[in-house]
Design brief:
Shape: globular
Strand content: 15-25%
Strand order of the largest sheet: 4-12-11-10-7-5-6
Number of helices: 14
Structural class: alpha/beta
Mean pLDDT: 97
Number of strands: 17
Distance between the termini: 35 Å
CATH topology of the largest domain: Aspartate Aminotransferase, domain 2
Length: 395
């Protein structure tokens, strides 16, 4: 089947909620993807911060093959199985958490975190303590609960009314958060590094202030690390770079190297209020994805691997700064999660990237986002920035 046939088949049968470029991706190697015409694309998107170990990784393939030896792909959460228990242990050992609950995506993990927070308040006798504090530029997902905490009219308006009880403050503005906080708030949710909102890093003072606010009002602090977690910032968990622990952390995107998984990490005080039957999922914590995720987390959590992410992230930001393009207003980020704010719409830059063999993605209309595989090489970073520089001279 050729490219035109695949695209036509999709247009005929797949709901058209995505805008895709006119090529069909077929295979990959390292940080490079190839389309059906054989054209190579250096990937700075990584499936939107998902494919941390890149493509055709030997260890990842072996982990997937190991899961097939038993002949069991699914048993459901009605029964015990080893892979999900081993992954939960690893996640607890490498974080603040005492317990883990698995989901299938980041949005599901965040929805679960909201449920856990409301149950925590109710279990303590505070049935009216149901409000959730979120922040400007946030993105927590597209399901009804988390969509209510994602303040974007484009996403929200067509689907109102949304879940009630969500209020907003300005990101990185502690005074704004204090003004919105009271004893009716059961949870504060924040991304340590905002992804879809434009790659904005929280300040240490802001996160520490939120920790103190949550404690003062007996609310839970939720860190959404769906995009910034699992090595993306050069720490296994982004919160480690701040020295501030949450009560709940949500993870997903890179956790299983490209297979669908989400996780809710929590302190024991949260786990204590959740009882059998309070929450669940048919596919969550399946044997295949949790076995693969154990491999991914174990690989990324090596000190030398995380140090390389920090070094390559610094190189990427330094080279982008050195472009000195009049279109670049700011380069910001953490590790290999970098945003370049422009004074122009970045869509033409993304499109010209396709022509030159680069996969690029935006984070809002005027921010070019770089979230490549964490195994990208320094030479590939240099080639990326040189190509972006050429494009900027044309737009």
């Amino acid at each position: 089947m050729n490219k035109a046939q695949v695209i036509q088949m999709e247009q005929d049968h797949v709901l058209g909620v995505y805008g895709r470029p006119p090529f069909v991706l077929e295979r990959g190697e390292g940080s490079t993807l190839y389309d059906t015409d054989g054209k190579a694309y250096l990937d700075l998107v990584a499936g939107i911060a998902v494919n941390a170990l890149g493509y055709n990784d030997r260890g990842l393939k072996q982990a997937i093959e190991e899961t097939l030896e038993s002949g069991v792909l699914h048993v459901s959460n009605l029964y015990h199985s080893e892979p999900h228990a081993r992954l939960a242990q690893l996640l607890c050992e490498t974080s603040f958490a005492d317990k883990v609950h698995f989901a299938n995506s980041g949005a599901e993990a965040n929805e679960g975190a909201f449920k856990f927070a409301r149950r925590y308040a109710r279990d303590k006798g505070n049935e009216e303590k149901t409000n959730i504090l979120a922040f400007s530029n946030a993105f927590h997902g597209r399901l009804y609960g988390v969509l209510a905490a994602t303040p974007r009219p484009k996403y929200q308006d067509p689907f109102k009314p949304l879940m009630p009880g969500v209020r907003f403050a300005e990101f990185n503005d502690l005074a704004s958060a204090k003004a919105q906080m009271d004893d009716s708030v059961c949870a504060i949710i924040v991304e340590p590094v905002q992804g879809e909102g434009g790659i904005y890093c929280a300040t240490p003072e802001f996160l520490q202030g939120l920790r103190e606010l949550a404690d003062a009002h007996d609310a839970l602090l939720i860190f959404d690390e769906v995009q910034c977690g699992v090595g993306r910032t050069g720490h296994l968990w982004a919160y480690e770079g701040y020295g501030v622990e949450p009560d709940i952390l949500t993870a997903a995107k890179p956790l299983a190297g490209g297979l669908p998984i989400g996780a809710i990490l929590m302190k024991q005080k949260v786990a204590d209020v959740m009882h059998k039957g309070d929450h669940g999922s048919t596919f969550a914590g399946g044997l295949v994805v949790t076995h693969v995720a154990h491999h991914v987390v174990s690989r990324i959590n090596q000190p030398e691997f995380l140090a390389s992410v920090q070094a390559k992230g610094k190189l990427l930001m330094d080279l982008l700064d050195e472009l000195n393009s009049p279109h670049i207003k700011e380069v910001r980020g953490s590790g290999l999660m970098v945003g370049v704010e422009m004074d122009i719409d970045v869509t033409p830059i993304v499109n010209k990237g396709y022509e030159r063999g680069l996969l690029l993605v935006s984070a809002g209309p005027n921010v070019l986002r770089f979230v490549p595989p964490l195994i990208i090489t320094e030479d590939e970073i240099k080639r990326t920035v040189a190509t972006v520089g050429e494009i900027l001279q044309e737009v």
